[in-house]
Amino acid sequence: MSTADDEITIGFEHWHTHVGRFLGIDTTESVATAMTIIENFVAERTVVKISYRDGVWLKSSLDYVVAPSEPEPHSTTEVLSWGGTYDETIQTP
Fold it and tell me: By three-state DSSP, how is residue 67 classified?
């Protein structure tokens, strides 16, 4: 987590997101939003997904465990959770 450049940046492995006034929210709401993102990840309600094709990064996302997105086709997707409960590697044809 970083608070440089008047925004909050939250990251884990190859995924990150930004929260701040550029979203049209004030500092209090920015901090609350960042805390919610962190709390959901640490409680393993969300997981980070990182997709690669032929070893080249395609995309990263933060998904809710109860509503996961489909992995990218023709790729390898690493699923990472804070405590390791949902960690897996998914290969799609």
Answer: coil
Q: What is the pLDDT of residues 23-80, one digit of tens each?
A: 999 999 999 999 999 999 999 999 999 999 999 999 999 999 999 899 889 999 999 9
Range of the domain at 53: 4-91
Listed in order, strand segments (DSSP E) in 1-93 are 7-12, 15-20, 46-53, 56-64, 76-80, 88-91
Rounded CA separation 23/77 (Å): 29
Number of domains in the chain: 1
Asked whether the beta carbons of 28 and 15 are under 8 A apart, the reply is no
